[in-house]
Each structure stands twice: as structure tokens, then as C-alpha cells.
UniProtKB/TrEMBL annotation:
Compartment(s) where it occurs, according to its Swiss-Prot or TrEMBL record: Membrane
Domain of life: Bacteria
Any single GO CC term annotated in Swiss-Prot or TrEMBL for this entry: membrane
Keywords recorded for this protein, A-Z: Membrane, Transmembrane, Transmembrane helix
Membrane topology designation: Multi-pass membrane protein
UniProt protein name: Methylamine utilisation protein MauE domain-containing protein
Membrane-spanning parts: 12-30, 50-74, 86-108, 120-140
Primary residence: membrane
Record-annotated Methylamine utilisation protein MauE domain positions: 7-140
InterPro entries referenced in this protein's UniProt entry, alphabetically: Methylamine_util_MauE
GO terms under biological process: methylamine metabolic process
């Protein structure tokens, strides 16, 4: 991974760690209001209470997964954190797209912080941009993974 790629990878990770930490903190700091808004979402009733706790926990776990490989020097975990990130933001983007299309009727935004002030279409576009960034983050790891899978003995066979 060259220097520019590494800096872009770090910038994407920092951006998502900040986003997820911020939104999870906003949800947990104003938990009673967040819980009411989540209970008004259009999910199966038994799933709602799981999501009340699951969404901020998932955000914090993904944020941790994005920085943990650097803290414990585990380069193979770098891609896993980014794939988890892409899955989480893709789920949020799908939901905001459905909410923006009006398929659910009125739904309050339970995202927390400044995201709640966005309209659904603006929120959907915001999430699309972040989904694209998450996809770029996964794509950037391709060279690192390929390089990590090649051992010196294999390289020696191919060198003249």
C-alpha cells in the first residue's frame, strides 16, 4: 500500500469512526427519546427492541473494528472492519432510501445529532456518499490483501 493509499484509508476510517461514535453517543445520551423514535419505525414489533440496542452497539463495534487492526497490529483484520462498515452503511442507506421514497409513510429520523435535522432525501444522499466512501475503503485493501498472501518463498520461485 503506497503512502497516498494509506492516507486515504486512514481518512476514510477516521471519518466513519467519528460518524459512528457521534451518532451512537447521541442515541445513548438521549436514550428515552431515541427509543420512542425507534419504536415508531416500520419494523416487525419483536425486532424493534433489539434494534433499539443493536443499532448503537453495531455502530460502536464497527467503529472499533475500523481502528482495532492498527492498535493491535493485525493487518488482516483491516479489510474485515471495512467490510463490516460497508454492510452497516449500506443497510442505513437502503432504509433511508425507502423512507425517502415514502414507502413507510411518515417515519421520524432516529439517527441522532445533526443527521436528524436533514430531510429524508438529503439524508439518503448523505448516506449514498458515505456508502461510496465505504466501498472505496474496501477496494483500497485489495493490494494489501494480495501482498499479504504472497510469501517470500513463492516470490522467489518467480524471480529470475
Amino acid at each position: 500500500m503506497n503512502t497516498k493509499t494509506l492516507y486515504l484509508d486512514i481518512a476514510i476510517r477516521v471519518l466513519f469512526v467519528a460518524l459512528y461514535t457521534y451518532t451512537a453517543a447521541m442515541k445513548l445520551l438521549d436514550f428515552p427519546v431515541y427509543r420512542i423514535k425507534m419504536r415508531r419505525q416500520h419494523f416487525f414489533e419483536p425486532l424493534k427492541e433489539w434494534l433499539v440496542w443493536g443499532v448503537p452497539i453495531a455502530e460502536l463495534l464497527v467503529a472499533t473494528g475500523l481502528i482495532l487492526p492498527f492498535l493491535v497490529a493485525a493487518p488482516r483484520l483491516r479489510r474485515a472492519g471495512l467490510v463490516g462498515n460497508l454492510m452497516l452503511i449500506s443497510g442505513f442507506t437502503l432504509y433511508t432510501g425507502l423512507a425517502a421514497s415514502g414507502i413507510f409513510g411518515y417515519v421520524p429520523c432516529s439517527c441522532g445529532g445533526f443527521l436528524e435535522g436533514m430531510g429524508w432525501w438529503v439524508h439518503f444522499l448523505f448516506n449514498l456518499v458515505f456508502t461510496a466512501l465505504a466501498a472505496v475503503g474496501v477496494w483500497l485493501q485489495r493490494d494489501m490483501i494480495r501482498g499479504a498472501d504472497v510469501s517470500p518463498s513463492v516470490c522467489g520461485r518467480f524471480s529470475g
